[in-house]
Amino acid sequence: MPVKILSVDDENDLELLLTQYFRRKIRKGEYEFIFAHNGLEALTMMLKHPDVEIILSDINMPEMDGLTLLAKINEMRNPALKVIMVSAYGDMGNIRQAMNNGAFDFATKPIDLDDLSVTIEKAIEQINYVHESQREHNQLESLRNDLAIANEIQQAILPRIFPPFPEDADKMDIAASMEPAKDVGGDFYDFFRIDDNHIGVVMADVSGKGIPAAIFMAVSRTLIRATGMRGGSPSDCINYSNRLLAQESVNNMFVTVFYGIYNLQTGELTYCNAGHNPPCLVKSNGQVSTLPTTGDTIVGAMDFLEFHEKTMTLEKGDVLVMFTDGVTEAFDTSFEQYGDDRLQDTLQKVAQQGCRQLIDSVRADVAAFVGEAEQSDDITIMALKRR
Predict the structure, then answer these.
(1) In this predicted model, what pLDDT tens digit does every residue of 129-158 receive, in sequence order?
(2) How confident is the model at residue 78 (pLDDT cuts 50, 70, 90)?
(3) pTM over 0.85
(4) Calpha distance 344→86 (Å, rounded)
(5) Which of 15, 30, 215, 280 is 20 to 30 Å from 86 by CA-CA measure?
(6) pLDDT at 251 over 90
(7) Residue ranges of domains in the chain, CATH in brackets
(8) Within 13 Å of residue 122, how many CA atoms lie on the same side as its CB?
(9) Where are the alpha helices (DSSP H) in 158-209?
(10) Pair 256, 298: CB distance under 8 Å
């Protein structure tokens, strides 16, 4: 598209002068000139040609002078519209005022067309820069909108209704929360009914950050849930999920997973810990310990791995607290970590609370510790209590 240039001057000779000098650029479609003879006419022409990008304006004109026209143009707040003022050499006072009021550059009469050509090219460079900046801004806004939608989708696929199994509220209490460090996160939690007596619980953390981690998170969560709901053992579920994820993994992405099957009647928990933070067992008397690991590593890295499982039993009043490393590795402004010891100290103090209150207490303690430091990782917590 040609650059549209509006020349505003009450001297008719200038029209012929410009079209003659720039005839090659006009023929090539690089420039297109439009002419007006005063400020009011110029504003009318701008309404007809909203894509005008350069204005050559005389200062001294009837009906509306160039300084008034410049003020009107400034009100449009179009950073890509450049005004070059034209006036007699002896009119430096008005020229200086025009420059102070936002004119891009100036030319003096009699016009040196070679110099004016250079000035127009400089203006075009600035205009192109503004357009490029606007395109990048629009792309950034579009990305932000996409991330906001992705965050809503991600939050929507995680269980958010508590209590999730009201028919078994006398047997167990369960709650969870996920607070992403960025627009979208790589952590996820899940729980689902396998049969009348068994509930599957998942806590996981995908490697990396941002959109790739969020996509891998969605795939991992769907695969583990679909496999777990078939009713196999935790080790069978993770073995199968690992083989599929490792075969389809891109950029060496992986996920750490704690997956357990909880028996509502007996309190027995059979679990597989695939490289994840060991959950904390909070006894009703406030004693806190960590669950033994199953000696397994990450999911999705190597398809030949075999995963294992262990079994423990929750007594009445015991709480199993699952979390990601965003909790224990939260940093304060001095780059000190929250750590496992602080987490266990907090859990001792809130052992008698319900799962929702317990999670809120831990999050509040982490937030108080971190203070003004930026959140460095997703913070995800899930608590399961035997009643």
Answers:
(1) 999 999 999 888 887 787 777 777 777 788
(2) very high
(3) no
(4) 76
(5) 30
(6) no
(7) 3-135 (3.40.50.2300), 160-386 (3.60.40.10)
(8) 11
(9) none
(10) yes
Residue 26 has pLDDT above 90, yes or no: yes
Q: Can you tell me the distance from the alpha carbon of 4 to that of 30, in angstroms, rounded to the nearest whole number? A: 9
So what's the pLDDT on residue 101? 92
Confidence of residue 44 (pLDDT cuts 50, 70, 90): very high
Whether the Cβ atoms of residue 57 and residue 84 lie closer than 8 Å to each other:
yes
Of 201, 235, 239, 236, nearest to 221 by C-alpha is 201
Tokens encoding 42: 């110029």
Q: How would you list the strands of the sheet with 379-386, edge to edge?
A: 172-179, 379-386, 319-323, 280-282, 288-290
Residue 3 contacts residue 52 (beta carbons within 8 Å): no
Q: Tokens for 256, please give them.
A: 């750490």
* Amino acid, single-letter form, for residue 243: R
Q: Which residues of 117-126 are buried (b: 16+ CB within 10 A; e: fewer)?
A: eebbeebbeb
Q: DSSP for 338-361?
A: -HHHHHHHHHHHTTTS-HHHHHHH
User: CA torsion 37→38→43→46, rounded to 10°?
Assistant: 30
| Mean pLDDT confidence for 44-61 | 93
Which helix (H) or strand (E) covers residue 67, if one does? helix 66-75
Q: Rounded CA gap, 346 and 333, in Å? A: 20
Structural contact between residues 382 and 201, judged by C-beta atoms closer than 8 angstroms: yes
Which single residue is written with the structure tokens 């810990």? 273
- State the Cα–Cα distance between residues 221 and 188, nearest whole angstrom: 7
**Mean pLDDT across the chain:** 92
- 226-247 burial, b at 16+ Cβ within 10 Å, e below that, comes to ebbeeeeebbbbbbbbbbbbbe
Query: Is 382 a residue whose pLDDT tops 90?
Result: yes
- Write the pLDDT tens digit of every residue in 29-39: 999 999 999 99
Cα angle at 11 between 8 and 13, to 5 degrees? 110
Closest CA to 185 of 357, 339, 326, 327: 326
Amino acid in position 48: K
Tokens 């979208």 belong to which residue?
184
Radius of gyration of the chain (CA): 34
pLDDT of residue 215: 84
